[in-house]
Amino acid sequence: MKRLLVLIAATGLFCASTYAQKIEKEAPKGFDQVQTGIATGKLDSIQYESKTVGTTRKALVYTPPGYNKKKKYPVLYLLHGIGGDEKEWLKGGQPQVILDNLYAEKKLEPMIVVMPNGRAMKDDRATGNIMAPDKVQAFATFEKDLLTDLIPFIEKKYSTLTDREHRAIAGLSMGGGQSLNFGLGNLDKFAWVGGFSSAPNTKKPEELVPNPEDTKKKLKLLWISCGDNDGLISFSKRTHDYLYQNDVPHIYYIEPGVHDFKVWKNGLYMFSQFLFKPVDVSSLSKYTLLGTPASTNIRNAKYPQILPDNRVVFRVKAPDAQKVQMDLGKKYDMVKDTAGFWNVTTDSISRGFHYYSLLIDGVAVADPASESFYGMSRMASGIEIPDRDEGYYAMKDVPHGDIRIKHYVSKPSNTWRELYIYTPPGYDQNTTQKYPVLYLIHGGGEDQRGWATQGRTDQILDNLIAEKKAKPMLIVMLDGNMPNAGGMAGFNENALRSFENELKTGLIPFIESNYRVETDAKNRALAGLSLGGLQTLHAGVKNTNLFSYLGVFSSGWFANNPKLTDPQYAFMKENASTINSNLKQFWISQGGKEDIAHQNCQIMMKKFDEMGIKYQYSEYPGGHSWPVWRHDLFGFSQLLFK
């Protein structure tokens, strides 16, 4: 079995400079079977006085092989589930066998393990209605019993280390929720916390970790694990998502399985090997067997899966294919297994949305397990990679607007055209209010669907409006593809004029005749990405009497096409004073040096400087990609109509 090396910390909580013991990614066969000829620990049943409950309570205590009262030991408190008691781990998991075997292989720090009854009430038996309110409440009451009664008793009766760095807590199901609640809620008492298949009693992550920076300083290790077919996995995932977004080091371990001891025993085997040793934080994202299905997967599709370090596992069934590749900008050769499935694990993929395709015997096709999006001038698969900065476009419990799909007859082309339009919260209720409008254009190879689906426009604006950071506005996501324009290969002044004509004589009149919008320049904005940025530069700059706000994302006039660009610069030079006077905001943004439009943009802005054109520049790393353009909309929309 493949093993990973864990580095020994030299200084600080997570510093590492030399290698320690090897840690497996999964328990080997026989890890939970009794072995002969090895030293074994001892199990004791103890009783302690609980002032919290007002009675004598029971617990099991495991002391390691060779336990010596002259030596002091760290302690792991191991909690059971809602239907169990202090003997549930013993009956279902035989932790003493797992631990004895680990000691024999020198994989474990000697420790005392305490298995209490986590139902803190006078009749703490797992009988009757275990979901009764008083019994559920008793699991919360156990926090006080643990801290004020059980821990002091253990530390008086046994030879233990009594500082937080030598105290751990972990549990399964209800006990997993208790462990996360009590451990993260009492970091002055626990430095090691583990939740196996944590149940709905787990607090919301914002309550578990209200101060991520403080948690990072105090926590030695946080372990969260679950079976991939466990109905409670959403509680583990929401905690992981929050920790990921707030950059709190932890292990998120997913394995094949359900809500049972097969998963929990493996969790104990893995988690216990980390305890009371230096931890290499850089390796934590590698400890998992499975990833999380991408949010862009179709319903119930398990693949693609995203691993905690943002590598992606792709899997597709094509038993008769001779060669299959996964094309994510970089092409990955897939390997066929005996069941006809082709598999590959990619490198770590950058944050946000990415188009991808399967190449099956040289033919590019969409992945049947993924949602498809119009991009790359065709329908392609898309995958959403977790982004630590994604909070501004996350779905939140705030008032929500609508995205509506409308068709209109274009007078310039005498054709039916489609647009997507965002109406803010309250639009249908506030029937006398008129709103400003942002006309928003997609890039080359995309259409009016891009900003609505790939761009998350509605979620970005819903959140900003709720926080009063953006004015309520309509956003018209138009189709910038003009008939007979010839695409990028045929992109020229005529194509730009065709778009300008459609905007002025087709689209804007339709919007202003059918929606409650303000109809003056100070309440109109125009923005676009890439090719849409060029359309904005042309139609917006030529018509500053119509638009007071222009946004140009990842774009710029071509430095190698003077036939197209020189007339644009000539117009701007001649009308610089009018442009500066009419525009309240001329916002230009890029995705850093890796953005394919970066150089053109830098040359263009230098031209603007020479002509005295005023503008505001913003840069957000990420290249020529949707994570950048989402952030552009987030920033630009906050400047509008104020």
Tally of helical segments: 16
What does the largest sheet look like? 8 strands, mixed
Strands ordered across the widest β-sheet = 3-4-6-5-7-8-9-10
Structural classification: alpha/beta
Helix content: 25-40%
Q: How far from one another are the termini? A: 62 Å
Q: How many individual β-strands?
A: 29
Mean pLDDT level? 93
Q: Rough shape?
A: elongated
Low-confidence stretches: 1-21
- What Rg do the Cα atoms give? 30 Å
Strand residues, percent? 25-35%
Overview features:
642 residues; alpha/beta; 8-stranded mixed beta sheet; 16 helices; 29% helix; 26% strand; hydrolase; signal; Ig_E-set; Alpha/beta hydrolase-fold protein
Strand and helix map with partners:
Elements: E1 3-8, E2 18-24, E3 42-50, E4 55-63, E5 75-79, H1 88-93, H2 95-104, E6 112-116, H3 133-157, E7 167-172, H4 174-185, E8 192-196, H5 205-208, H6 212-218, E9 221-227, H7 233-245, E10 251-255, H8 261-274, E11 292-293, E12 305-306, E13 311-317, E14 324-328, E15 330-333, E16 335-336, E17 341-348, E18 352-360, E19 363-365, E20 372-375, E21 378-385, E22 402-410, E23 415-423, E24 437-441, H9 449-453, H10 457-466, E25 474-478, H11 493-514, E26 524-529, H12 531-541, E27 549-553, H13 562-574, H14 576-582, E28 585-590, H15 598-611, E29 616-619, H16 626-637
Parallel strand pairs: 5-6, 5-7, 7-8, 8-9, 9-10, 24-25, 24-26, 26-27, 27-28, 28-29
Antiparallel strand pairs: 1-2, 3-4, 4-6, 11-12, 12-13, 13-17, 14-15, 14-18, 16-17, 18-19, 18-21, 20-21, 22-23, 23-25
Pfam families: Esterase
InterPro entries: AB_hydrolase_fold (IPR029058), Esterase-like (IPR000801), Ig-like_fold (IPR013783), Ig_E-set (IPR014756), Mycobacterial_A85_antigen (IPR050583)
Organism: Spirosoma flavum
